[in-house]
Amino acid sequence: MAAAFLLALSAVAFAASPSDAPTVTFRKIFKSSYPEFVEIKITQRGTGTYDIRQLDDEASPAPFEIGAPLTQRIFELTARLRNFQGLDLDVHRRIANLGEKTFRYEKAGETHEVKFNYTLDDSATQLLNIFEGLTRQESDLSNLERAMRYDRLGVNDAVRQVEADYNQKLLPEPERLLSPLDRVAADSTYVDIARQRARALATRIRATH
Prior knowledge:
Strand content: 15-25%
Number of strands: 6
Shape: elongated
Radius of gyration: 20 Å
Largest sheet: 6 strands, antiparallel
Helix content: 40-55%
Number of helices: 6
């Protein structure tokens, strides 16, 4: 009985191995823009990495996580798109270069991906908007934390950018910015206008998320 129980536990642990978790990857390459390179990987557990940089910069993926509702939405849209298997999303028309986008699905050795410049597919557009929003959100977070550490006078501009993106509903999970906003609001070494802006924005986010 004990041996069978241990065997069952081992099987569960193996099934739950992170390497076996389905993963959706978004990559965007857009030369002469900022950023030129974006790669975001999300597992079905909501954990993953992001790498946002210029093409000449060294790869530096950093860990991050998203909430269960957003994770579920990403994988629901991926399922609607047949896990990108045999998919053609591009409009195949002569339009401006908007950057090469790639969606990739990986699970236990199974890999499917699709590349496109522009698509009219509704599910793909929704998925793209989520990843573009995560790109903006992580960039805002990095810029704010960098300003807090190295450029105290630039903190107000960083908070103002977060506020502008929040007002335009571009941030998928704005509550993830609450911690640095609270630190700005509570730190008297930052200029008053930055503290007031951060406090007001944090209040608005808490009221709606």
